[in-house]
Amino acid sequence: NDSVATSISGMEMLLDTEKKILMIFEGYIKANEAKIEILKRKLEEYQIENDRAIIDPEKYVTNPLSSFSLIRRLASDWKDLMQYIEADAGESFLTQLKTYTTSSDFPTSEDVTEAVKGFIRIQSTYKLKPSDAMNGIINGVQYDHALHSKDLYEMGSDAFSQGFYYYADEWFKASLAKHDIEDSEYIYFNFNKETILEKAIDNKFAQKDYHVALKYTTQLLQHNDNNEKGITLFKDIEQILAFNALRNITNEGKVFGEPSTDPETESFERGCRGDYSKIRPRLSPEFSCHFVTENHPFLKIAPMKVEVINVEEPYMAIFHDIVSDKEIETLKTLAKPQLKRAFVYDPESKTSIASSHRTSKFAWYSDTDDDLFPILTQRLEDMTGLSMSTSEQFQVMNYGIGGHYATHKDYFDEPENLEGFKYTSYKIGNRIATMLFYISDVEQGGFTVFPSLLAAVKPKKGTCVFWYNLKPNGNGNPKTNHAACPVLVGSKWVFNKWIRSNGQMFAKPCPADYQ
Ligand SMILES: O=C(O)CCC(=O)C(=O)O
Ligand SMILES: [Fe+2]
């Protein structure tokens, strides 16, 4: 199981799975209903007989026929009836349910954890408030699905287990608020107001916020004065508070567990929220871009719409309408069944590993995998004038909710990442340029941001963003640092091509200062 929640494509299959298990569940219920029907009829038969007999018991038992009948009913029928009652009516359905719910692609608590991580990224990046989410509001937009108190509780519980106490607080608050206004249209097992309060107290305890812990404990005992945890905790907390008072330890005015934000993260998050000066593609009506007719004779016939984001180093531009809807459909159809959890190169273990720095699913393609790829490769050469002879394979990616790619460089740094560089690059060179194609729109979030350039690219289906990662002398340009912002609403599909420097001796000869 490589985390269903890390791609929308994986999540779509869950609805089919749910539909199937609901059908089996229905089968189980029908089988049990049929059993209950038979039991009801049996009850009725015996009741009628007994009602008749009891009017004149003596008459009934003195008649040899009816007295035999009574003995037969009790001695023989009930043995069979007990067997029938005990046998499981929907056993085959139950077996099927077990098979489904224990199969490797059925979501587990690890998937919940992954989804909660995504939510916490959303919470911190977009300042999403649980008090809005509980009413179905995301970033000021009202959606038709609100969260249940159970969802909010699970979110808090998992955030608590992961040590995100500050965020967990907000989810528990929302869960309690929602629980109070929710008419209990849902039946939950092992979940009620006490469950929420108990976890909320644990979370406050973990933050050493004993005043609020005491407040929740009081609420818990008001709700149920027999709650054992509440009784024990109440004493404990009073003791701690008395002890603290004695030693003058005070928490007055302290903010508990607020996540620290370093300037770099802060800047990145601003970009994700759309606060950079350069947001492309330009959305204003006066937007203009030039047509590329150089590079290749082909472009005189089919010029390309290019919008330059950065003229100086690193050169960076957007190509509009560069892949067609039909090509996009082909790519997605191809990739959907093949997507796997994306990984990153880990300098420590010198291998590629799944990491919370990069949550998406991907699949790689070479030119021989489908007729479409050589066509795209030719187009990429026409677009850039660069040779694709040493480029890496096409990488198709799909991001789930909260899916992101933390700030990174596409090139290999020396000597920082010497191993990674040596490992992959001695033959084909470093990643001179990146071409990133958006093959879906994203309803909210999912920008690609370049904090050093204060530039952000909003995904737009059919466009490509191109940039040089290396300076003309072949060294990496740290200004190309970039990140994929968490997806807020929607499914983000991209594909990319990492172009290598060693194929470019004719297209882009080395400058004099190359060493
Ligand atoms: O998906 C994005 O917006 C960025 C992806 C990226 O940076 C990469 O694949 O190297
Ligand atoms: Fe990248």
Keywords:
single chain, 515 residues, alpha+beta, Serine Threonine Protein Phosphatase 5, Tetratricopeptide repeat, Jelly Rolls, 3 domains, nine-stranded antiparallel β-sheet, five-stranded mixed β-sheet, 16 helices, binds 2-oxoglutaric acid, binds fe (ii) ion
Task: Tell me what you see in this structure.
The model has no long low-confidence stretch (mean pLDDT 88). This protein has helices spanning 8-55, 57-62, 64-86, 91-101, 109-126, 130-133, 149-161, 165-181, 193-206, 210-223, 228-246, 263-272, 298-301, 325-335, 372-384, 418-425; strands at residues 137-138, 141-142, 278-280, 290-292, 304-310, 316-319, 340-341, 344-346, 351-353, 361-365, 394-399, 405-408, 431-438, 444-445, 448-450, 455-457, 464-468, 482-484, 487-489, 492-500. It has three domains: 4-101; 109-246, Tetratricopeptide repeat domain (Serine Threonine Protein Phosphatase 5, Tetratricopeptide repeat, Alpha Horseshoe); 278-503, Jelly Rolls, CATH 2.60.120.620. The strands form five sheets. Strands 4-5-6-17-13-20-11-10-7 form a nine-stranded antiparallel beta sheet, with helices on one face. It contains 16 helices and 20 strands. Helices cover 45% and strands 16% of the residues. Helix 1 (8-55) packs antiparallel against helix 4 (91-101), helix 8 (165-181) runs antiparallel to helix 9 (193-206) and helix 9 (193-206) packs antiparallel against helix 10 (210-223). The protein has 515 residues and is of the alpha+beta class. The chain is flat. 2-oxoglutaric acid binds next to strand 18 and strand 20.
